[in-house]
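Q: Give me a backbone?
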Amino acid sequence: MTNTTHRRRIEVLADEPLISAIVRIAADAGITHHTLLPTLGGVGAHGRWRDDQLSGATAKVMFLAITGPDHAAAFIDRLAPLLESHHMLLMSSDVEVVRNAKFD
């Protein structure tokens, strides 16, 4: 059986202009590796949205990171005060990873 290690998966859906600030907050919390995923659109509390590739006005990006529980908690503590005012969605879940050294 393959050994796995417990880690936290952090996902943040945010407007594209906020991503550099989210990356800085993550780095301050000790999260040095992440992936940015483009989105196509969706429906939220404020109605339908979609990626407008011409102006980027409503473009949203998913920030994804896998990290240890301590770094995840520090990131959540730093980002939580901004969630409501900046209309971000933050998700955190338990995951089991293979190749533990990639996620320290």
User: Anything to note?
Assistant: The mean pLDDT is 88. The helical segments are 19-28, 69-79. Residues 69-79 form the longest helix (11 residues).
